[in-house]
Amino acid sequence: MMNIAAPVDLALRRICAHDNSAIAQVIREVSAEYGLTADKGYTVADPNLDELYQLYSKPGHAYWVVELEGKVVGGGGVAPLSCSEPDICELQKMYFLPVVRGKGLAKRLAIQAMDFAREQGFTRCYLETTAFLTEAIALYERLGFEHIAEPLGCTGHVDCEVRMLKTL
């Protein structure tokens, strides 16, 4: 007897207001898993964490969530890099629960975010992460991000020692 896997209901879509608490919970869970604490300036310290829809509804901003069978299991976005040159955007808040990691969704989302950024007139994309997120760094390198020494903008992520930039 052949074992056929059931189809998976997976969606990548723009964030809606009703997604706020679900994506905030995903970010908190993944942050706790990796020890990314608020006292070190990671995303969990962001005062807008529970209002991502409102934050990413501004011009030049966009955020996407990944849904698995109707449940938000990940997300990521792009926004203008604060305190920086106007042509630089930042890839932000890329977090995925273990159930969807390794399925190409982060790559798909990052490409979608960079396409959006290009359409908005950005010519460079910046990101910050930490060295122990090796899978994420490998993905960013495959996408053409290059390591840079000095931080750009004023993100407040003091413990994000890996900084990368890509020409769009």
From TrEMBL:
One example GO MF annotation: N-acetyltransferase activity
InterPro entries: Acyl_CoA_acyltransferase, GNAT_dom, NAT_camello-type
This protein's UniProt keywords: Transferase
Chain ranges of the N-acetyltransferase domain: 10-168
Matches recorded under SUPFAM superfamilies: Acyl-CoA N-acyltransferases (Nat)
Gene3D superfamilies to which the protein is assigned, alphabetical: 3.40.630.30
Signal peptide: none
Name of protein: GNAT family N-acetyltransferase
Native source organism of the sequence: Dryocola boscaweniae
Source organism phylogeny: Bacteria, Pseudomonadati, Pseudomonadota, Gammaproteobacteria, Enterobacterales
